[in-house]
Automatic annotation (TrEMBL):
Organism: Streptomyces johnsoniae
InterPro entries registered for this protein in UniProt: DUF2469
The protein, known as: DUF2469 domain-containing protein
Length: 112
C-alpha cells in the first residue's frame, strides 16, 4: 500500500467517523474529552483521587459513544477512564445541534 493509498484510506475513515458522530450526537447530553479519547454519554460520574500527593481523575460512563476510527464498534456499554491529565466535560446545548429552518438544508421549500 502506497503512502497516498494510506492517506486516502485514513481520510475516508475520518469522514465516515464524522458522519457517524453527526448522526448520533443528538442522542447524548454530555461530551467528555480526555487526553486520549472523546466520548458522548448521557450518564457519567467523576471522582478526583489523591494518592501520595498525586492527583488523578476517574471518570465512569454508561452507554457511551467513543470517537475512535480504529474501533470496529464505537458504542460502549461501560467505560472507566483513569488519567492524570485534564478532563473536559461539557453539557451539549440542544439548540446548537439543530439547523435553523431557513438554512436551506432539509425540510421546507425555498422561495426563489
Amino acid at each position: 500500500m502506497s503512502a497516498e493509498d494510506l492517506e486516502k484510506y485514513e481520510t475516508e475513515m475520518e469522514l465516515k467517523l464524522y458522519r457517524e458522530y453527526r448522526d448520533v450526537v443528538g442522542l447524548f447530553t454530555y461530551v467528555i474529552e480526555t487526553e486520549r479519547r472523546f466520548y458522548l454519554t448521557n450518564d457519567y460520574e467523576m471522582q478526583v483521587h489523591s494518592v501520595q500527593g498525586e492527583v488523578f481523575f476517574e471518570v465512569s460512563m454508561a452507554d457511551a459513544w467513543v470517537w475512535d476510527m480504529y474501533r470496529p464498534a464505537r458504542f460502549v456499554k461501560q467505560v472507566r477512564v483513569l488519567t492524570f491529565k485534564d478532563v473536559n466535560i461539557e453539557e451539549l446545548n440542544r439548540s446548537e445541534l439543530d439547523l435553523p429552518e431557513d438554512s436551506g438544508f432539509g425540510g421546507g421549500e425555498r422561495n426563489a
